[in-house]
Amino acid sequence: MRANTGVQHGFTLIELIAGIVVFGVALAIVTSLVASQSRRSIDPIWQVRAVELGHSLLNEISAKPFDENSDPLGGTTRCNEATPCTSSGQLGPDGAETRANFDDIDDYHGLDVESAAITNSLNETLQSPNGALYQGFRAQVSVFYDDNTDGFNDDDADGDGTPDSGNVIGNTKLIRIIITTPGGDAVPISLYAVNY
Questions:
Q1: Nearest CA to 134 among 178, 180, 88?
Q2: What are the phi and psi torsion angles at 110 (to 5°)?
Q3: What does each C-alpha distance from 38 to 29, 31, 86, 135 come to in angstroms?
Q4: Which residues pair with 127 in a beta bridge?
Q5: I want to staple 79 with a disulfide (CB 3.0 to 4.6 A). Which of 38, 59, 67, 179 is the partner?
Q6: Distance CA 11, CA 193 (A)
Q7: Which residues pair with 143 in a beta bridge?
Q8: What pairing do the DSSP bridges indicate for beta strands 131-132 and 127-128?
Q9: Residue 3 pLDDT > 80
Q10: Which range (78-82, 125-129, 168-172) has the least confidence?
Protein backbone atom coordinates (compact mmCIF):
# COMPACT_ATOMS: atom_id res chain seq x y z
CA MET A 1 0.00 0.00 0.00
CA ARG A 2 1.03 3.47 -0.79
CA ALA A 3 1.11 6.04 1.88
CA ASN A 4 -0.67 9.31 1.32
CA THR A 5 1.97 12.04 1.39
CA GLY A 6 -0.57 14.91 1.14
CA VAL A 7 0.94 16.32 -2.10
CA GLN A 8 -1.67 17.53 -4.59
CA HIS A 9 -0.93 17.76 -8.33
CA GLY A 10 -2.74 20.25 -10.61
CA PHE A 11 -3.05 23.97 -11.32
CA THR A 12 -3.99 26.74 -9.02
CA LEU A 13 -6.71 29.21 -9.95
CA ILE A 14 -4.11 31.92 -10.57
CA GLU A 15 -2.18 29.68 -12.95
CA LEU A 16 -5.40 28.87 -14.88
CA ILE A 17 -6.31 32.56 -15.22
CA ALA A 18 -2.78 33.45 -16.35
CA GLY A 19 -2.89 30.64 -18.94
CA ILE A 20 -6.25 31.81 -20.28
CA VAL A 21 -4.98 35.41 -20.59
CA VAL A 22 -1.82 34.30 -22.44
CA PHE A 23 -3.88 32.05 -24.73
CA GLY A 24 -6.34 34.92 -25.43
CA VAL A 25 -3.54 37.35 -26.35
CA ALA A 26 -1.90 34.77 -28.64
CA LEU A 27 -5.25 33.98 -30.29
CA ALA A 28 -5.94 37.70 -30.89
CA ILE A 29 -2.53 38.15 -32.57
CA VAL A 30 -2.96 35.09 -34.79
CA THR A 31 -6.52 36.10 -35.74
CA SER A 32 -5.45 39.63 -36.72
CA LEU A 33 -2.66 38.23 -38.92
CA VAL A 34 -4.98 35.76 -40.63
CA ALA A 35 -7.71 38.39 -41.16
CA SER A 36 -5.32 40.81 -42.86
CA GLN A 37 -3.98 38.04 -45.09
CA SER A 38 -7.48 36.94 -46.12
CA ARG A 39 -8.21 40.51 -47.28
CA ARG A 40 -5.01 40.53 -49.32
CA SER A 41 -5.78 37.18 -50.88
CA ILE A 42 -8.87 38.56 -52.66
CA ASP A 43 -7.08 41.65 -54.04
CA PRO A 44 -5.45 39.82 -57.00
CA ILE A 45 -8.82 38.39 -58.02
CA TRP A 46 -10.39 41.87 -57.90
CA GLN A 47 -7.46 43.29 -59.91
CA VAL A 48 -7.87 40.65 -62.63
CA ARG A 49 -11.62 41.25 -62.82
CA ALA A 50 -11.04 45.02 -63.00
CA VAL A 51 -8.59 44.64 -65.90
CA GLU A 52 -10.95 42.25 -67.72
CA LEU A 53 -13.85 44.68 -67.30
CA GLY A 54 -11.73 47.64 -68.42
CA HIS A 55 -10.46 45.84 -71.51
CA SER A 56 -13.96 44.69 -72.38
CA LEU A 57 -15.24 48.27 -72.22
CA LEU A 58 -12.22 49.51 -74.16
CA ASN A 59 -12.84 46.96 -76.93
CA GLU A 60 -16.50 47.95 -77.11
CA ILE A 61 -15.71 51.67 -77.27
CA SER A 62 -12.81 51.47 -79.72
CA ALA A 63 -14.93 49.45 -82.15
CA LYS A 64 -17.13 52.53 -82.70
CA PRO A 65 -16.44 55.31 -85.24
CA PHE A 66 -14.27 58.24 -84.12
CA ASP A 67 -17.07 60.80 -84.16
CA GLU A 68 -20.77 61.34 -84.85
CA ASN A 69 -19.76 63.12 -88.07
CA SER A 70 -17.41 60.34 -89.24
CA ASP A 71 -18.41 57.96 -91.99
CA PRO A 72 -19.21 54.71 -90.12
CA LEU A 73 -18.61 52.65 -93.25
CA GLY A 74 -14.99 53.74 -93.62
CA GLY A 75 -15.53 56.27 -96.37
CA THR A 76 -12.91 58.62 -97.69
CA THR A 77 -14.13 61.70 -95.80
CA ARG A 78 -13.27 62.13 -92.15
CA CYS A 79 -14.81 64.64 -89.80
CA ASN A 80 -12.76 67.85 -89.70
CA GLU A 81 -12.40 67.65 -93.47
CA ALA A 82 -15.87 68.26 -94.94
CA THR A 83 -17.74 68.66 -91.65
CA PRO A 84 -16.27 69.46 -88.23
CA CYS A 85 -16.01 66.83 -85.52
CA THR A 86 -18.11 67.21 -82.39
CA SER A 87 -16.93 70.10 -80.18
CA SER A 88 -15.53 69.28 -76.74
CA GLY A 89 -18.58 70.76 -75.01
CA GLN A 90 -20.87 68.35 -76.88
CA LEU A 91 -19.02 65.08 -76.10
CA GLY A 92 -21.31 62.48 -74.55
CA PRO A 93 -24.55 60.74 -75.55
CA ASP A 94 -26.49 62.44 -78.33
CA GLY A 95 -30.03 63.22 -77.15
CA ALA A 96 -31.77 60.20 -75.66
CA GLU A 97 -29.09 57.67 -76.65
CA THR A 98 -28.43 54.83 -74.25
CA ARG A 99 -25.47 52.49 -74.18
CA ALA A 100 -27.34 49.98 -76.33
CA ASN A 101 -27.36 52.43 -79.25
CA PHE A 102 -24.16 54.44 -78.73
CA ASP A 103 -22.80 54.95 -82.24
CA ASP A 104 -19.45 56.70 -81.73
CA ILE A 105 -16.58 56.90 -79.25
CA ASP A 106 -17.54 60.07 -77.44
CA ASP A 107 -21.06 58.81 -76.63
CA TYR A 108 -19.39 56.89 -73.79
CA HIS A 109 -18.14 60.12 -72.16
CA GLY A 110 -19.68 60.29 -68.69
CA LEU A 111 -20.66 56.61 -68.52
CA ASP A 112 -20.66 55.71 -64.81
CA VAL A 113 -22.05 52.29 -63.79
CA GLU A 114 -21.60 50.08 -60.77
CA SER A 115 -22.41 46.62 -59.39
CA ALA A 116 -25.42 44.99 -61.09
CA ALA A 117 -25.74 47.96 -63.48
CA ILE A 118 -22.49 46.85 -65.15
CA THR A 119 -23.74 45.10 -68.25
CA ASN A 120 -22.41 44.15 -71.64
CA SER A 121 -23.20 46.22 -74.76
CA LEU A 122 -26.49 44.33 -75.19
CA ASN A 123 -27.59 45.41 -71.68
CA GLU A 124 -27.25 41.86 -70.33
CA THR A 125 -26.19 41.52 -66.69
CA LEU A 126 -22.91 39.67 -66.35
CA GLN A 127 -23.50 36.74 -64.01
CA SER A 128 -21.33 34.33 -62.11
CA PRO A 129 -22.56 31.29 -60.13
CA ASN A 130 -22.64 33.54 -57.04
CA GLY A 131 -24.61 36.45 -58.54
CA ALA A 132 -23.53 39.59 -60.38
CA LEU A 133 -19.97 39.14 -61.63
CA TYR A 134 -18.97 42.73 -60.88
CA GLN A 135 -20.79 43.25 -57.57
CA GLY A 136 -19.08 46.13 -55.76
CA PHE A 137 -17.16 47.30 -58.86
CA ARG A 138 -17.57 50.71 -60.51
CA ALA A 139 -16.69 51.70 -64.09
CA GLN A 140 -16.26 55.35 -65.11
CA VAL A 141 -15.50 56.48 -68.66
CA SER A 142 -14.28 59.85 -69.90
CA VAL A 143 -13.48 60.80 -73.48
CA PHE A 144 -11.80 64.07 -74.42
CA TYR A 145 -9.63 65.68 -77.09
CA ASP A 146 -5.89 65.33 -76.46
CA ASP A 147 -4.08 66.21 -79.69
CA ASN A 148 -0.77 66.83 -77.90
CA THR A 149 -1.07 63.38 -76.21
CA ASP A 150 -0.08 64.64 -72.77
CA GLY A 151 -2.95 62.86 -71.02
CA PHE A 152 -4.80 66.09 -70.21
CA ASN A 153 -7.91 67.60 -71.71
CA ASP A 154 -6.96 70.07 -74.48
CA ASP A 155 -9.89 72.25 -73.42
CA ASP A 156 -8.46 72.83 -69.92
CA ALA A 157 -6.67 76.12 -70.63
CA ASP A 158 -6.12 77.03 -66.97
CA GLY A 159 -5.12 73.52 -65.83
CA ASP A 160 -7.82 73.18 -63.16
CA GLY A 161 -9.09 69.84 -64.46
CA THR A 162 -12.33 71.11 -65.99
CA PRO A 163 -13.05 72.07 -69.61
CA ASP A 164 -13.28 75.82 -70.14
CA SER A 165 -14.65 76.84 -73.55
CA GLY A 166 -16.21 73.62 -74.80
CA ASN A 167 -15.17 74.65 -78.30
CA VAL A 168 -12.07 72.49 -78.85
CA ILE A 169 -12.19 70.16 -81.85
CA GLY A 170 -9.28 67.83 -82.47
CA ASN A 171 -8.19 64.68 -84.24
CA THR A 172 -7.10 62.64 -81.20
CA LYS A 173 -9.39 61.50 -78.39
CA LEU A 174 -8.22 59.93 -75.16
CA ILE A 175 -10.52 57.23 -73.82
CA ARG A 176 -9.90 56.91 -70.08
CA ILE A 177 -11.60 54.16 -68.07
CA ILE A 178 -11.28 53.89 -64.31
CA ILE A 179 -12.44 50.66 -62.70
CA THR A 180 -12.79 50.78 -58.91
CA THR A 181 -12.67 47.43 -57.10
CA PRO A 182 -14.79 46.58 -54.04
CA GLY A 183 -11.64 47.20 -51.98
CA GLY A 184 -11.43 50.79 -53.26
CA ASP A 185 -8.44 50.32 -55.57
CA ALA A 186 -8.68 52.34 -58.81
CA VAL A 187 -7.43 50.62 -61.97
CA PRO A 188 -6.96 53.12 -64.83
CA ILE A 189 -6.98 51.96 -68.45
CA SER A 190 -6.52 54.37 -71.38
CA LEU A 191 -6.37 54.32 -75.16
CA TYR A 192 -5.90 56.99 -77.82
CA ALA A 193 -8.27 57.01 -80.77
CA VAL A 194 -7.14 58.91 -83.84
CA ASN A 195 -9.31 60.37 -86.59
CA TYR A 196 -7.98 58.39 -89.56
A1: 180
A2: 90, 0
A3: 14, 10, 48, 19
A4: 132
A5: 67
A6: 77
A7: 175
A8: antiparallel
A9: no
A10: 125-129
